[in-house]
Amino acid sequence: MRSALLLIAALTATSATAMPPRHGDHSQTSDPNKVICHSEPVLGSRLQVNKTCHTAQEWADLRQQQRDTVERVQSGGLMGPGH
């Protein structure tokens, strides 16, 4: 149970950096190869930012992977037998 909670906390922290702010659905972009970059502030710093660039298709794939992981964790699929 504890490991599942730690994973959920890690996914939450990761999703804040892995996913761009949703200013429109980039997966619906007419060109799936269009590169989309987002800058996100570094926690604890007022000046540093992390810039992350992916294609529109990669952003859509990342969102889907995160949805799948959250769904698997919520359904109890992450924990093995006997937990």
Compact summary:
This protein is an alpha+beta fold and 83 residues long. It has 2 helices and 2 strands, in the order H-E-E-H.
Produce the secondary structure layout.
Blueprint: H1 2-18, E1 35-41, E2 49-55, H2 56-74
Antiparallel strand pairs: 1-2
Helix pairs in contact: 1-2
SS content category: alpha+beta
Give the number of DSSP strands.
Answer: 2
Task: State the end-to-end CA separation.
Answer: 7 Å
Give the averaged pLDDT, no decimals: 77
**Helix coverage percent of residues?**
40-55%
Keywords:
two-stranded antiparallel ribbon, alpha+beta, 83 residues, 17% strand
How is this structure best described in words?
This protein is an alpha+beta fold. The protein has one domain. 43% of the residues lie in helices and 17% in strands. It contains 2 helices and 2 strands, in the order αββα. Strands 1-2 form a two-stranded antiparallel ribbon. A hairpin with a 7-residue loop joins β1 and β2. α1 packs antiparallel against α2. The longest helix has 19 residues. 2% of the residues are buried. The model has no long low-confidence stretch (mean pLDDT 77).
